[in-house]
Design goal:
- The chain has a single domain, classed as Aspartate Aminotransferase, domain 1.
- The protein is 40% helix and 24% strand.
- It has four helices and six strands; from the N terminus they run ααββββαββα.
- It has helices spanning 2-11, 15-31, 79-82, 102-118, and strands spanning 36-40, 43-47, 56-61, 65-69, 87-89, 92-96.
- It has a six-stranded antiparallel beta sheet with strand order 1-2-3-4-6-5.
- The mean pLDDT is 75.
């Protein structure tokens, strides 16, 4: 159901948003094929449970950043060394477009978080 809507979401994004978003969505599908793809608040999301607070990862795009939404505890102190150019937003990690190292570090963080919930 959500696959078509998620594809439509990416079609509405600018070039950077499409590129980063599709990579993040492919990462989630590859690493967590059992998580249900969905849309929540018009954003592509993969849920661990039926509700967002049970664990999720999502993606959104803006003019200058992409944001990977995960629970705030994944951006605990000490993550700054791994993600020096990223900022912690409200329940998300903001990545500046053009930052080539941050997406891999964010994926590592998301993989560790979701891996704990799905183990």
């Amino acid at each position: 159901m959500a696959s078509g809507a998620i594809s439509e979401y990416f079609e509405t994004q600018n070039g950077n948003g499409q590129a980063y978003g599709r990579k993040f969505a492919a990462f989630l599908a590859r690493e967590f094929p059992g998580l249900r793809p969905d849309l929540s608040f018009s954003l592509p999301i993969r849920r661990v449970g039926r509700k967002r607070n049970e664990g999720h990862a999502a993606f959104s795009a803006a003019k200058t950043i992409s944001a990977s939404a995960v629970p705030a505890r994944t951006m605990r102190p000490g993550r700054g060394a791994e993600l020096p150019s990223c900022k912690a937003g409200k329940r998300c990690i903001n990545i500046q477009y053009g930052d080539e190292q941050a997406p891999a570090a964010v994926q590592k963080t998301v993989k560790a978080f979701l891996g704990e919930l799905t183990a």
